[in-house]
UniProtKB/TrEMBL annotation:
Classification via InterPro entries: P-loop_NTPase, PRK, PRK/URK
Endoplasmic reticulum in keyword set: no
Record-stated family: Belongs to the phosphoribulokinase family.
SUPFAM superfamilies: P-loop containing nucleoside triphosphate hydrolases
Organism: Colwellia ponticola
Gene Ontology annotations of biological process type: carbohydrate metabolic process
Domain Phosphoribulokinase/uridine kinase: 7-214
NCBIfam families: PRK15453.1
Superkingdom field: Bacteria
Identification of the protein by name: Phosphoribulokinase
């Protein structure tokens, strides 16, 4: 963690909606005049799509498993190194994993490949990460320790699978069978690496549908925001003004002492109301830390 170079991470499984909710964060950054550098979790995959297909085959041959949720397929030490480096210097590097033709064409590349790493220098206000592993901790690596504001994006699992299946088949060119097989193959890593993160987050946003999602593998459409509620759980966040949120968000209520529920259609508003003051606090701490360093270097 670093007051001078703060890091915000939105962490969630594949299909949870971390990319979708990035728009809410970007809106807050614009409103507060913050310049962020955005890092995508998928850029820390170790393999291109073609290489990963080969790794899956090799693993199967020896009776083992590899998935995008785990440490075999993702470079956790490199992710931690990047977070540490940004905290200490405000510098770093980014690349993109190109999922679709639309994403790949501007780079003259194929889907399932990475763009080259590009360095960025000082001058950003904060680093914003969205992806699978913003709060990961293993025996060797601790990514979570570098994050100043850690947010979990966690639809209940049936909804998460529906979102993944529909997105992967419509946008990423995978078959339903392939996506279902991926979900099955990823389950062990899901439990080992993905879910433990949500006990380290400051806030979790958990979308819960109010329509029947009992067979996610046959679902034809993603339940809409209006067909859901969002459960918002706070952990180690001080001075949460629940009364204010309850007054501002029509239809919201408390379900536990640290948990608020809002109608799905109010998710964007809830995110803005809750996150804006927290991000403003990070910026104030940053300004103070920068002032202190300037003052010390003047001595
Ligand atoms: N709140 C929401 N309401 C309706 N649809 C949503 C919501 N959040 C996400 N989706 C849909 O779910 C799908 C997956 O969302 P998104 O691409 O943001 O997931 P992701 O967490 O970034 O996944 P990945 O890490 O695999 O790229 C998309 O089709 C998106 O439109
Ligand atoms: O979203 C994911 C993980 O977060 C994808 O499963 C992973 O990035 C592989 O992508 P693709 O299926 O497009 O090759």
């Amino acid at each position: 963690m670093s007051a001078r170079n703060p890091i915000i991470a939105v962490t969630g499984s594949s299909g949870a909606g971390t990319s979708t909710t990035t728009a809410s964060f970007e809106h807050i950054f614009r409103t507060l005049g913050i310049s962020s550098v955005n890092i995508e979790g998928d850029s820390f995959h170790r393999f291109s799509r073609q290489e990963m297909d080969m790794e899956k085959r090799k693993a199967k041959e020896v009776g083992s498993n590899i998935s995008y949720f785990g440490e075999l397929a993702n470079d956790f030490p490199e992710l931690e190194k990047q977070f540490r480096n940004y905290s200490e210097t405000g510098k770093g590097k980014i690349r993109h994993y190109l999922h679709t033709f639309d994403e790949a064409v501007p780079y003259n590349q194929m889907p399932g490949t990475f763009t080259p790493w590009e360095e960025f220098g000082e001058g950003t206000d904060l680093l914003f990460y969205e992806g699978l592993h913003g709060g990961v901790v293993t025996d060797e690596t601790n990514v979570a320790q570098h994050v100043d504001l850690l947010i979990g994006m966690v639809p209940i699992v049936n909804l998460e699978w529906i979102q993944k299946i529909i997105r992967d088949t419509n946008d990423r060119g995978h078959s339903r069978e392939a996506v279902s097989a991926n979900i099955v193959r990823s389950m062990e890593d899901y439990i080992s690496f993905i879910t433990p993160q949500f006990s380290r987050t400051h806030i979790n946003f958990q979308r819960v549908p109010t329509v029947d999602t009992s067979n996610p593998f046959s679902a034809k459409a993603i339940p809409s925001l209006d067909e859901s509620f969002v459960v918002i759980r706070f952990r180690e966040v001080k001075n949460v003004d629940f009364q204010y949120y309850l007054r501002m968000i029509d239809g919201s209520f408390m379900s536990r002492i640290n948990t608020m529920v809002v109608p799905g259609g109010k998710m964007g508003l809830a995110m803005e109301l809750i996150l804006t003051p927290l991000i403003r606090d990070l910026m104030e701490r940053k300004a103070q830390a920068t002032q202190q360093i300037d003052w010390m270097s003047d001595l």
